[in-house]
Amino acid sequence: MRILRRYLFRVVVSRTLLVLAVLISLAGFFELISQLDNLGEGSYGLAEAFFYVLLKTPRKIFVILPMAALIGSLLGLGALAAHSEIIVMRAAGISTWRLAGALAATGLVLSVIALAIGDFVSPAAEGYARQFRALARSGQAALRPGTASWIRDGDTFINLGQPDEELRFGGVTLYRVDNGALAAVAHADSVEVTEDEQWVLNNFAETRFLDDGVVVHRVARLLEPKNLDAELLALMEVKRTTLIDQQLRRYIAYLKRNGLDARRYETAYWSRIMGSLAIVPMILIGLPLSFGSLRNAGSGARLVVGLAIGLAYFLGSQTLADGGAVFGLSPALIAALPVLVLTAVVGLMLWRAR
């Protein structure tokens, strides 16, 4: 049985990696196309766009891997069925459930890999990609000593406070220089980035150094100051895709303690976990389908079936997520229900094909 498990593992994983490479290449190509309009902004050129797309790849791998596992399973098991290898396995006394167990083990291995990518590699790469693109488009450079980021934007030097252990930000300080001399120092307690990429400085205070004295200007909310790039200040915004699980849990706890809505971050947390576990039923579904009409079908037909199943799963998950947000359903339930339904359907198909 150990030899059989290794054989099935090799067949499914090899097809999965092939499909993943194709899908990632397509996704990367379209991502690169979307960056063409930004070429020439600051120091953001074609090489920078390629590097940005490369940094986004771990996130794409995490998102696409369940679909790649589904199609890879259909292609691999379909090829075995077409050569009657699965029939020989069953004739040798290996039950459908034992085959399913071997495939489930393969799925668990891929799930662990996906979870590691989604929890460690993807957030770090996603965060660096955002910073790299913002700084390249602004034509500036940043120094990150560990607690803050320094950005130069024209005659203004900006100090962006970095989040503490609860991901609360330290605000922003601006130093304006005129002919080599310090002209003004300003500080805001917090920064907000709106959906249309405008931004707001809260509790803004500016001290201007004039020839005849010092002038202090204070305002509760300052909209659209000059000299700053909205994408640069967007680096201050907490992005769900740039937080590892431990940071997500800590930030969720912080939001709840302060009476703030944490549901979208809870949904992101549970979706990351359940999205990885979805690989197991995605692989298993190829087994009962290889017994049926797909046994003698070509690779094209299996590919179409895989895309249809994956699209249906994705649309169902998105519909449930949108509906759950409207009706206030538990984020854990929203993330787990599609996986549970798919697992139940696969179990029923295996029971009928036993």
Could you describe the 3D structure shown?
The chain is α+β, with helices and mostly antiparallel strands and 354 residues long. The chain has two domains: 2-138 and 242-353, no CATH class; 168-237, SH3 type barrels (Roll), CATH 2.30.30. 61% of the residues lie in helices and 16% in strands. The chain has helices spanning 2-35, 46-82, 85-91, 96-138, 230-233, 245-257, 263-277, 279-284, 286-291, 299-327, 331-353, and strands at residues 142-143, 148-153, 156-161, 172-178, 181-188, 190-193, 199-210, 213-223. Strands 1, 2, 3, 4, 5, 6, 7 and 8 form an eight-stranded antiparallel sheet that branches. It is elongated and about 95 Å long. The two termini are 18 Å apart. The model is unreliable at 142-147 and 164-168 (pLDDT under 50).
In short:
Helix content is 61%, strand content 16%.
N-to-C order of helices and strands: HHHHEEEEEEEEHHHHHHH
Q: How many β-strand stretches? A: 8
Helix content: 55-70%
DSSP strand content: 15-25%
Largest sheet: 8 strands, antiparallel
Query: With helices defined by DSSP (H or I, 4 residues minimum), what is the helix count?
Result: 11
How many domains in all? 2
* Average pLDDT level: 81
Envelope shape = elongated
> Which structural class do the helices and strands define?
alpha+beta
Low-confidence parts, pLDDT < 50 over ≥5 residues?
142-147, 164-168
What gap, in angstroms, lies between the N and C termini? 18 Å
Q: Report Rg.
A: 26 Å
Primary descriptors:
single chain; 354 residues; alpha+beta; SH3 type barrels; 2 domains; eight-stranded antiparallel sheet; 16% strand
